[in-house]
Amino acid sequence: MADEERHYDVLVVGAGPAGLAAAARAAERGIRVGLIDNNPEVGGQIWRRASGHLQYLPVAREWIERVAQSPNIERIGGAYVAGLAGTRAVAVETAQGSQNIGFTRIILATGARELMLPFPGWTLRNVVGAGALQALSKEGLAVKGKRVVVAGSGPLLLAVATSLHYAGAEIVCVAEQAPWWRLAGFALRVASDKVKARQGRSIRRALRGVPYHAGAWPVEAYGGERVEGVTLRAGWRKWRESCDYLAYSSGLLPNVELATLFGCRTERGAVSVDRQQRSSIFYVYCAGEITGIGGLERSLVEGEIAGYAASGAQEQAQALAARRRSALDFSRALERTFALRGALRRLAAPETVICRCEGIKLREWSAAQAWRAQRAQAQCDKTGCEGRICCDAAQYLFGWRVNPARPALYPDPASTALIEA
């Protein structure tokens, strides 16, 4: 049984941009800050091995160095929050064992995960989440010379394509389901922001010559033991692209599982917070994509506000209100631009597998009226299905209100079995 070995004035869970900013600002107050992350390195998905994101390198280095140089921050890397261990303590698992960590206030910066909508062939080997393939390439997966189709929706697609390009992959094309007219309006907005415009120019240089298809999406992946190509559709036109990998993501969803264990109120899939980033539980603050998908700038400013507010520096937190409003406005523009089209709900065929863990097919779920009843009927819990992929798909495909019986805080590492070098 774990004993409570440590206690922090402020405990930050998640060491991506929001978590780094929160920890750095809280530590400025001279209090004891703990920073937990399941990766051995800080930076989260976006800044992991930051050299792969050339457009983010200066700002990434700034925040990573602030945290590294602060004497008031204690990092706990390679650690998983397994659950709650009392009112103000969490149970943490590390390679060295388990322990309970107490806190006065906690900041959750647990980020987001990819939404993958089922379509025929999506369970073939090497059909991978776009962000997942990016992460694997940073960890050593050899993509040099491999043909990669990047498809789905959202700015993540361009970031992934750029990263894979620098890793030596051949980007066959990028297929974005949002239509040109929405993208054009969003591009004008980006061009008016100096930082975002500079990032855009960096991406354009990296992807010069790569076909970019707007209003296009995958309808089928084909191959034998692994993917050999993908059929894309744009309007009435359909065509095939051969590839070694299909990097696929239909957007991002906030990771609210830990917040819901604390009892934090959520709305539209994200944690509801006030202007100080405080949740409905007064000692729990949330920052970054756990409060809604909004990009790097929103994550940073929310992290700074949460760090200040949780450490008692209310005036400094309030001074960032204008930056926060601007970031939230940009988030709304993102949501409008990359809203998913209804046609994506009709891609899966009756025999398309929806739950990978159990091999449950669409036809077995299509008549279900309630998630719990269908989960019981399909016996998805028998082998420990965490529901992190099929839950998300069910919400979009059927409009179900999903409430898994056993909320998983982290995905099953077995998902990497879908990769073939």
Could you walk me through the main structural features you see in this protein, from its secondary elements to its overall organization?
- The chain is α/β, with parallel strands linked by helices.
- It contains 14 helices and 21 strands.
- The chain folds into three domains: 4-112 and 253-335, FAD/NAD(P)-binding domain (3-Layer(bba) Sandwich), CATH 3.50.50; 116-250, FAD/NAD(P)-binding domain, CATH 3.50.50.60; 348-410, no CATH class.
- It has helices at 17-27, 44-47, 57-69, 130-138, 156-166, 180-191, 194-206, 257-262, 296-310, 314-318, 321-337, 362-365, 371-378, 390-398, and strands at 4-13, 33-36, 73-76, 80-84, 89-94, 97-108, 112-114, 127-129, 147-152, 170-176, 212-214, 217-223, 227-234, 237-242, 245-249, 252-254, 266-267, 270-271, 284-286, 353-355, 360-361.
- Strands 1, 2, 3, 4, 5, 6 and 19 form a seven-stranded mixed β-sheet that branches. A five-stranded parallel β-sheet has the order 8-15-9-10-11. A three-stranded antiparallel β-sheet has the order 12-13-14, with no helix packed on it.
- Helix 1 packs across helix 3, helix 1 (17-27) runs parallel beside helix 9 and helix 6 runs antiparallel to helix 11 (321-337).
- The chain is globular and about 60 Å long.
- The chain starts with a strand and ends in a 23-residue tail after the last helix.
CATH class of the largest domain: Alpha Beta
CATH homology-level superfamily of the largest domain: FAD/NAD(P)-binding domain
The description of the largest β-sheet is:
7 strands, mixed
Distance between the termini: 40 Å
Write down how many β-strands occur, each being a DSSP E stretch of 2 or more residues: 21
How many helices? The count is 14
Describe the global form: globular
- Helix content estimate: 25-40%
What percentage of amino acids are in beta strands? 15-25%
